[in-house]
Amino acid sequence: MLLEVKSLFKSYKQVQAVSDVSFTLDRGDVLSIIGPSGSGKSTLLKLIANLESSSSGDILILGESIQGLEKKRKQFLYQKMGFIFQDFALFDHMTVKENLELAPRLVYKKDKNELSNETDRLLKLVGLLDKKDSYPITLSGGQKQRIAIARALATQPEILLFDEPTSALDVKSIDDLVEIILKLKADNIGILIVTHDLRFAKMVSSRLLFMKNSSIIFSENIQNIDNLDGIFDDFLK
Ligand SMILES: Nc1ncnc2c1ncn2[C@@H]1O[C@H](COP(=O)(O)OP(=O)(O)OP(=O)(O)O)[C@@H](O)[C@H]1O
């Protein structure tokens, strides 16, 4: 199992943001967490990405609990996880190539040739090899996101986390994103997506988790969901 979330809780003073959330993510799974605003989706993603600490519960990466681990082992496990932020978080003063090569250069100490070959491979995967020497400011929202995906892949993660990936995209860019996610799924990467976008979730997911009032109230494999829109209408009531 790539990722296992066990009875996770998070509260902020009076607010219970995440209550008793459990699920698993396996290789080649695309899991979308859907829910109304304030239901706890972003908090859950932050807990998984180690950007916030939980009040209780456990997270296992590649079968290993992250609790009480020594720093190096924890770092190693978190390197298995790539995060694509809603605002993409690219470094504007660096070219696309420099953005992609920063982390692998620091983490894996690869030489220039190796880095350059890997950069070309990743940029081909996201269809943007011709933007290698461009600066992020010259790219469209959809292109920035594809670069953010390539950058996340540069450290060879097995799990990818996406926060609201379609929020800044036009229809064509969403179609491109769907294609990339399905390629990554076929490469056996486990993908967790937080989204409001049911149409998109339907196109990429193998399983949907519906979150409401800080808990997962319903989880179903996509092939078992016939009338998705009907379910969602009921769910939002
Ligand atoms: N840093 C914080 N301090 C206090 N309360 C917070 C904090 N972050 C989130 N919350 C609260 O936790 C609850 C869940 O918020 P969260 O952002 O996880 O929801 P969400 O489902 O991601 O919403 P949206 O779809 O609008 O982004 C909300 O009531 C929110 O106000």
Automatic annotation (TrEMBL):
The keyword Transport applies. Keywords: ATP-binding, Nucleotide-binding, Transport. The keyword Cell membrane does not apply. GO terms for molecular function: ATP binding. InterPro entries: AAA+_ATPase, ABC_transporter-like_ATP-bd, ABC_transporter-like_CS, MetN_ABC_transporter-like, P-loop_NTPase. Pfam families: ABC_tran (PF00005). Residues 3-236 form the ABC transporter domain. Belongs to the ABC transporter superfamily. This is ATP-binding cassette domain-containing protein.
